[in-house]
Please model this.
Amino acid sequence: MLNKKKLYSIALVSIALVLMLINITDATPFAYITNSGSNNVSVIDTATNNITAIVSASILNNPYGVAVTPDGTKAYVTNLNDNTVSVINTKTNTVTTTIPIGNGPFGVAITPDGTKAYVTNSDDDTVSVINTKTNTVTTTVPVGNVPFGVAITPDGKKVYVTNSDEGTVSVINTKTNTVTDTVLVGTGPSGVAITPDGTSVYVANSDDDTVSVINTKTNTVTNVPVGFVPRGVTVTPDGKKVYVANSQSNTISAINTAKNRVIATVPGGTWPIAFGQFIGNIQMKPKIT
Model:
């Protein structure tokens, strides 16, 4: 099983753990990257691939998860060591608020309407729900053992949380903020991603080298064999492929979502994790002839 000691080793060994793209209409997209080893967040202009800002290390404390609001005005960062969430103003790239939450916060996701942020607290087996207008915790939802990854359906009605120590995924109703179902998946579930149409949830199971595919209508599961110790998982914007980072085989598996089978295995770097939404639309410069 993926225990707490292994989770903390992931946070401490990797420098750039999570990348979140902010892409506003008629604006340059930026990437927010949490650097747990240096206790800061790098802001990258994706048009030039240059770091344009670094959010102060004096405020952050082992930053791990990150999510940007749909309007691009704020970034929410989980601080693993002091059980808080820092709110970054993306215009000034400064921390404006620090929110106390549960113990051992890892993942964070924001609803499509931008009104709520859901944070997994790995040490007390809960999910904190933050009102993004007031930046206060409005409720705490009990889930499974050692919650890690979190993702929200495109319609904003359901939250899927991976419980890494019990091989399950908790399904939270965002209207009532209660767990409506618990889905049995593989062992050691960590990363989680949802297709753009909201029909399928993909879960990377690090302890049995599979990806579980959850049908969101029936909550039935199909398991797809991938590489060794998969951690991160994400879906392409068109929903046709899923990419999985296999940390122990140093590869990336590409899954065809129509058939739910691996169609390609791409060599990667050493111990790839890619915990977060690591695929985004790239704005190409037009060719002038």
